Automatic annotation (TrEMBL):
InterPro entries noted in UniProt: NAD(P)-bd_dom_sf, Sc_DH/Rdtase_CS, SDR_fam, SDR_subfam_1
SUPFAM superfamilies assigned: NAD(P)-binding Rossmann-fold domains
Originating organism: Mycolicibacterium chubuense (strain NBB4) (Mycobacterium chubuense)
Record family assignment: Belongs to the short-chain dehydrogenases/reductases (SDR) family.
A molecular function (GO) term: oxidoreductase activity
Keywords of this entry: NAD, Oxidoreductase
Source superkingdom: Bacteria
Protein name: Oxidoreductase, SDR family
């Protein structure tokens, strides 16, 4: 069991926890001593061209968290369903007794292929990554507000919160528009909650990764889309000549923003992008 971690006996709620960044955050927070409430859709959306997470992926997150010695409540759920988020939270808080951190991480990238050209790709992007973020935080607030220590919320936005996914006429798609709009929009939600919750000692920030080596980015459909639209690939080149980020690099930022080193930070939109958005 983790001992004397930054988050010993704290509890974190993570959406999109079955794989990628969400899984990395779950394992990292568990290594720091936290118990985990995890949720993921574990199903396919018709507007997403690449394979999405599966129940087996969430099972693997459970295994990895339990391997650290910490506890985890893991459920299937759609962040677009506010009541389902509340149900998952209620079960986790009943088991663990408290809630300290919320990582609103669930995301999709419905830009590629014929699927991205469907108008439903726009509404799914907004539903998951803007409305879903709001529902996640709103469902978690009752438990956070009961915590005498306050807490921290971190929203996963993107470099696309500062610059659009579309780079020219050829890269326009309904899904790309929805992704860009949602990732910009959650900056507004972050600032709304940061101002509103400061008096309750709840800090709220957003993280804006560039390209991260996850199944959302590294898949056949996205590779084909990037190959067909070289301007997109050119626009995603960071200033620093570093390898592509791993999910754990984003987890470092999450730990910082939730931990004691980040105690003076709220209302911050933090790029973690090797300089991508400087261009």
């Amino acid at each position: 069991m983790a001992e004397h971690g930054l988050f010993e006996d704290r509890v974190v709620f993570i959406t999109g926890a079955a794989r990628g960044q969400g899984r990395a955050h779950a394992v990292r927070f568990a290594e720091e001593g936290a118990d985990v409430i995890a949720v993921d859709l574990c199903a396919q959306l018709d507007t997403v061209a690449y394979p999405m997470s599966t129940p087996e992926d969430l099972d693997e997150t459970v295994r990895l968290v339990e391997k650290t010695g910490r506890r985890i409540v893991a459920e299937h759920g759609d962040v677009r369903d506010r009541e389902r988020m509340a149900e998952v939270l209620a079960r986790g808080v009943e088991d663990f007794g408290r809630l300290d951190f919320v990582l609103a991480n669930a995301g999709i990238l419905p830009a590629a292929g014929a699927q991205g050209a469907d108008i439903a790709a726009y509404t799914d992007a907004i539903g998951v990554m803007l409305n879903g973020v709001y529902f996640t935080i709103d469902a978690a607030l009752p438990a956070l507000l009961r915590n005498p220590d306050g807490g921290a919320i971190v929203i996963t936005s993107s470099a696309a919160g500062f610059k659009p996914v579309s780079t020219d006429f050829g890269t326009m798609s309904h899904g790309a528009a929805g992704y860009t709009a949602a990732k910009h929009g959650v900056i507004g939600l972050m600032r709304h909650f940061a101002r509103s919750l400061a008096e309750k000692n709840i800090r709220v920030n957003s993280v804006h990764p560039g390209g991260v080596a996850t199944p959302m980015v590294l898949n056949e459909a996205m590779a084909q889309w990037v190959g067909e639209h070289p301007s997109f690939g050119e626009s995603q080149q960071p200033l620093l000549g570093l390898p592509m980020m791993e999910p754990g690099d984003v987890s470092d930022a999450m730990v910082y923003l939730c931990g004691p080193a980040g105690r003076y930070l709220t209302g911050v939109a933090l790029p973690v992008d090797a300089g991508l958005t400087v261009r």
